Amino acid sequence: MPTAIITGASQGLGRALADSLSSTGWRVVADARTGLEALRAALAGWRADDAWRRAAAEHNRAWDAAVERVYRAGHGPLPSQGEVIGAVNQAAEPRDVVVCAAGSMPADLHKLWRTRDPKGFHVEYGYSCMGYEIPGALGIKLAAPEREVFVMIGDASYLMLPQELVTAVAERVKLIVVLVQNHGYASIGSLSAAAGSGGFGTRFRYRDDDGGLDGDVLPVDLAANAASLGARALSVRSIGELADALKTARDSHQTVVIHIETDPTEYVTIGGAWWDVAVAEVSSSESVRKARTDYERDKRNQRLYL
Hints:
The chain has helices at residues 11-23, 32-42, 50-71, 81-91, 105-112, 133-143, 155-160, 164-170, 186-194, 222-228, 239-251, 286-299; strands at residues 3-6, 27-30, 97-100, 121-123, 149-154, 176-181, 232-236, 256-261. It has 306 residues and is α/β, with parallel strands linked by helices. Among the domains are: 3-42, no CATH class; 55-183 and 220-261, Rossmann fold (3-Layer(aba) Sandwich).
């Protein structure tokens, strides 16, 4: 179906053009501002029926309760990433900003973060740009110095562009960086496991004696790295210690990096979304063949909404 985009026309002319094109089989897409203004005028005085509103409110309460369970899970000995998000959300005030870009964190924030301000949630989804978090937060803080800016970043993303901490320190631009270390690429590792590949090459480990990638965990000290770049570094081991460190960071006048380890096997599972990533059709690996069977089964349940 051919598509027409109408921009810059008056409302009356735009409607006439749309009607004319629609009658000849064209799909009409309005200029965003003009389209929204027209929708607002058309919907003036309209409201959803009471039954729908009650159902929506009940769904909202149920989701909020599910989020609260993740926040208060008490997972141990290492906390979960969801609990870390809950602690940061509680420490953030309504006009503060959370920044994130890549890995498993954006999806978890999308499900768990309770946003109270239109500009309080700055999460990059388009290309999962690892390393965007700290320089992106610099720009946000420069644009809104009255807001505290919380950077939530995993260890793999941090390693892509940590040197921008030097810029923050040099320019006296205060950021609160919550550095979550799970010793690997959690998001792609989970996807690799789901595709039958066992998370190959996604953990920060030594090679073992047979040349594999399942040796001991690398002794990477990212808190020491942050301190070497001029930031104030705080290492914590629990959600209680994280809450105290967040208070310290808020009271500070300099960039603070709070380093916390989380359990790499504990995922935020609420939400029920399915990621359509195809699995190899032909493989000598039994786990990959099983993953392909599961993929084809799940693919049959897929529904397109647009």
